[in-house]
Amino acid sequence: MACQKDNLDLSDCLEEQINEFRNGDHACADGANVKEYLFMDEKVYVFDPGTCGADMFSDVIDEDCNMLGHLGGIAGLVEINGTSFNEAIFIKIVWER
């Protein structure tokens, strides 16, 4: 019950997405996290499932919960909308396990 709401700047849909990720089958028991970045002049969120699978990928969504693409996976994806995610600027960890 001690759920602290310290991410007051997140939209309702993002909070819902994080809760579903945290409580669902997509987040590993170790290393799962959600990080906020500035990418292509907008805040984006990377949902990293953690370390329970070598071929898992991370979803990248915007503030309005629109799917922008995936990173990693067996294909080693590094681009979102044709731009290398290396251009992204890390802002903060929103949630981690």
Describe the fold and architecture.
The chain has one domain (about 10-95). Helices cover about 10% and strands about 40% of the residues. The chain contains one helix and seven strands; from the N terminus they run αβββββββ. The radius of gyration is 13 Å and the shape is globular.
What structural keywords apply?
97 residues, mainly beta, 5-stranded antiparallel β-sheet, two-stranded antiparallel sheet, globular, disordered N terminus
Write the SSE topology.
Blueprint: H1 12-23, E1 33-39, E2 42-48, E3 57-62, E4 67-72, E5 79-80, E6 83-84, E7 89-96
Antiparallel strand pairs: 1-2, 1-7, 2-3, 3-4, 5-6
Q: How many DSSP E strands? A: 7
Query: How far is the N terminus from the C terminus?
Result: 17 Å
Query: Can you summarize the main beta sheet?
Result: 5 strands, antiparallel
Which spans of ≥5 residues are poorly predicted at pLDDT below 50? 1-5
Give the count of helical stretches.
1
- The proportion of residues forming helix, as a percent range, comes to 10-25%
Order of helices and strands: HEEEEEEE
Strand order of the largest sheet: 4-3-2-1-7
